[in-house]
Amino acid sequence: MDKVFSKVFMWLFIGLALTFGVAYTVSTNEAMVYNLFGDGKYLFVWIAELLVVIVLSLRIRKMSSMTATILYLLYSGLTGLTLSSIFIIYAITSIIWVFAITAGLLLIFGLVGYFTNLDLTKIGTFLIMGLLGVLLAYLVNVFIGSESLDMGLSVISIIIFLGFIAYDMQVIKRNIYTIEDENNRAIYGAFQLYLDFINIFLDLLKLFGNSRD
């Protein structure tokens, strides 16, 4: 089990390093920023991200090790493209500190999920319902434009995804061997935790990040 989780966190680190490496590189290239955000390509990147999430979530148990690896790295790179704007909006020191805080929270709640004797699968439905509620509220707020509601939703979102970290760790621990390929087991676990990490990071950055001068 420890061997599997060492590979899970190795792939999680690789995915996050790729994401933030791509994001920083794009943000420092004016032409790349314009090409991404200036003529609608951002929407196509976002759609591609969504498609990769769906394919990985539904097919990872059946796909080859090479395919799973490529899709995971592709998703990490695409996320880096969409996150390049944070290096334009926020100070680099804020990004680093929020990244470190998010990593600490991932460690704490990951350990809770790994070692607790409580059956966290029972809260999975409530977490999903809460997440859907937050997404719906975000959609409504697009038309309302309430800053206070936006901040409140970010706090709720953080709480939900902290719950998802513990929940996902327990699910990974219990179900990891239902995936035959060892590399796919690690990719599956890393992908679940990657999604939790990115969502918490973005919400924390929204709440506590300092904008660039």
Mind explaining what this structure looks like?
- The protein is mainly α and 213 residues long.
- The protein contains eight helices and no strands.
- Helix 1 packs across helix 4, helix 4 runs parallel beside helix 8 and helix 5 packs across helix 7.
- The model has no long low-confidence stretch (mean pLDDT 88).
Entry summary:
The chain is mostly helical and 213 residues long. It is built from eight helices and no strands.
- Strand/helix succession: HHHHHHHH
- Helix fraction bin: over 70%
Query: Which assembly state applies to the chains in this document?
Result: single chain
Percentage beta strand? under 5%
Number of helices: 8
**Morphology call:** globular
Q: Which regions contain 5 or more consecutive residues with pLDDT less than 50?
A: none
Q: What secondary-structure arrangement, pairings included, does this model have?
A:
Layout: H1 2-27, H2 30-37, H3 41-59, H4 65-89, H5 92-115, H6 124-144, H7 147-175, H8 182-208
Key descriptive features of the protein:
213 residues, mainly alpha, globular
